[in-house]
Write a structure and sequence with these properties.
The protein is α/β, with parallel strands linked by helices and 223 residues long. The chain has helices spanning 30-38, 59-71, 129-138, 153-167, 194-210, 219-222, and strands spanning 14-20, 42-43, 46-53, 75-81, 88-91, 93-95, 122-124, 143-146, 175-181. It has a seven-stranded mixed β-sheet with strand order 2-3-1-4-9-5-8, with helices on both faces. It has a two-stranded antiparallel sheet with strand order 6-7. Strand 2 and strand 3 (46-53) form a beta hairpin. Helix 1 (30-38) crosses helix 5 (194-210), helix 2 (59-71) packs parallel to helix 4 and helix 3 (129-138) crosses helix 5.
Length: 223
């Protein structure tokens, strides 16, 4: 996996794309593999910077904050695994709650704990998720707008990202959000092939970079 210290340099504006290490005893995490495949690509005149986050409450946000400070990306798309989902899930909202069904990779299992003490109850994505949905469906990629990112480390990172973007200059001009990806076929069903996941993410990122105003329509009407 690409480490934060090995990211490419150059004159291109940057997009930060993060994935997670495997967790819960699994050997694979499709978000990690997708980020590895996307790292270094050029999309809409932007260089994709891939980095891995630990599946650990707290520490994941420390690593993310360091990456944001180092690269000052134009766009940040954090990825996570969602077993049981059939589509790329474009997350709408992150909530200020960590409530873990299983321990993280450091053994922590918070219950009803805030991601940021005293922070807002929730943040909405700043990605044009409905325009992204239109482009994904037009390309034949199974996709959906999701109303919940859960309460495990994925939501923790999503909320923490949006809080960082809102509070730390010059980051307020950076757009950000979260996409859940399905299992790989080797992990069980339902699943999505890695090649299809990577293709869909590239389409979603290109849309986010080139779309100023989101589509206004009911998500179900777009499917």
């Amino acid at each position: 996996m690409v480490s934060p210290s090995s990211v490419p340099v150059g004159g291109f504006p940057r997009v930060l794309v993060t994935g997670f290490e495997p967790f819960g005893g699994a050997r694979l995490n499709p978000s990690r593999l997708a980020v590895q495949a996307l790292h270094g690509r050029l999309v809409a005149g932007h260089r994709l910077i891939g980095a891995e986050l630990p599946t650990v409450f707290g520490r994941s946000l420390e690593v993310l904050a360091d990456l944001l400070q180092r690269h000052h990306p134009t766009l940040v798309v954090c990825l996570g695994q969602a077993g049981g989902r059939t589509a790329l899930s474009l997350e709408r909202v992150a909530i200020n709650v960590s409530d873990a069904r299983i321990p993280d990779n450091a053994g922590a299992q918070p219950v009803d704990a805030p991601v940021v003490a005293g922070g807002p109850a929730a943040y909405f994505t700043s990605l044009p998720i409905k325009a992204m949905l239109v482009d994904l469906l037009a390309a034949g990629i199974n996709a959906e707008v999701s109303q919940t990112a859960g309460t495990f480390v994925c939501n923790h990172v999503f909320y923490g990202l949006m809080h960082l973007l809102a509070r730390r200059p010059p980051l307020p001009h950076t757009r950000g959000g979260f996409i859940h990806v399905p299992w790989l076929p080797a992990q069980g069903q339902p699943s999505m092939r890695l090649e299809e996941t990577v293709q869909g993410l590239r389409i979603a990122i290109e849309c986010a970079l080139t779309t100023v105003s989101d589509v206004r329509a009911q998500a179900g009407a777009l499917a």
